[in-house]
């Protein structure tokens, strides 16, 4: 029965990729977009001397996640899509590191850091699962 569940999920994943669906319907893309919005809200209070350093880097890595999911979706073939999903995952790891740096520097309060980090971990789990399913 477990195998049937995995097969159904894989078929659904393939159906999404091969149908007239859009990347906007992918839950992982939607959650990544929400994370970008949260990030932009939080970095507004970072010190102004970080505007072109950590603040900018955090914004760029956050933006890269849904952007690469979307760009890969528009590419031809699963191999190219996987490449962009892996770039999105790498950007997510970069963002997680930068959030921890911001927390260590006391730019983020513990509650905000925990929320952002947990949201990023959920996206990480979704992306890694999605990548595994496409590889099969």
Structural account:
The protein has a single domain (2-135), classed as 23S rRNA-intervening sequence (de novo design (two linked rop proteins), Up-down Bundle). The mean pLDDT is 90. Helix 2 (27-43) runs antiparallel to helix 3, helix 2 (27-43) packs antiparallel against helix 5 (110-135) and helix 4 runs antiparallel to helix 5. The protein has helices at 2-18, 27-43, 54-73, 78-104, 110-135. It is built from five helices and no strands. The longest helix has 27 residues, at 78-104. The chain is an all-alpha fold. Helices cover 79% and strands 0% of the residues.
Overall body shape = elongated
Average pLDDT metric: 90
Spans of 5+ residues with little confidence (pLDDT < 50)? none
Main CATH class: Mainly Alpha
Q: Output the helix-strand order.
A: HHHHH
Helix percent reads over 70%
Number of domains: 1
Number of DSSP strands? 0
Per CATH, the architecture is Up-down Bundle
N- and C-termini, Cα separation = 19 Å
């Amino acid at each position: 029965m477990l195998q049937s569940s995995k097969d159904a999920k894989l078929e659904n994943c393939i159906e999404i990729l091969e149908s007239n669906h859009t990347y906007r319907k992918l839950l992982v893309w939607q959650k990544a977009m929400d994370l970008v919005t949260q990030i932009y809200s939080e970095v507004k209070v970072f010190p102004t001397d970080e505007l072109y350093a950590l603040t900018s880097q955090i914004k760029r890595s956050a933006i890269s996640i849904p952007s690469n999911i979307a760009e890969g979706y528009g590419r031809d073939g699963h191999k190219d899509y996987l490449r962009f999903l892996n770039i999105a995952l790498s950007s997510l790891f970069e963002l997680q590191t930068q959030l921890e740096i911001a927390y260590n520097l006391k730019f983020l309060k513990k509650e905000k850091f925990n929320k952002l980090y947990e949201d990023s971990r959920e996206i990480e789990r979704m992306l890694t699962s999605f990548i595994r399913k496409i590889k099969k």
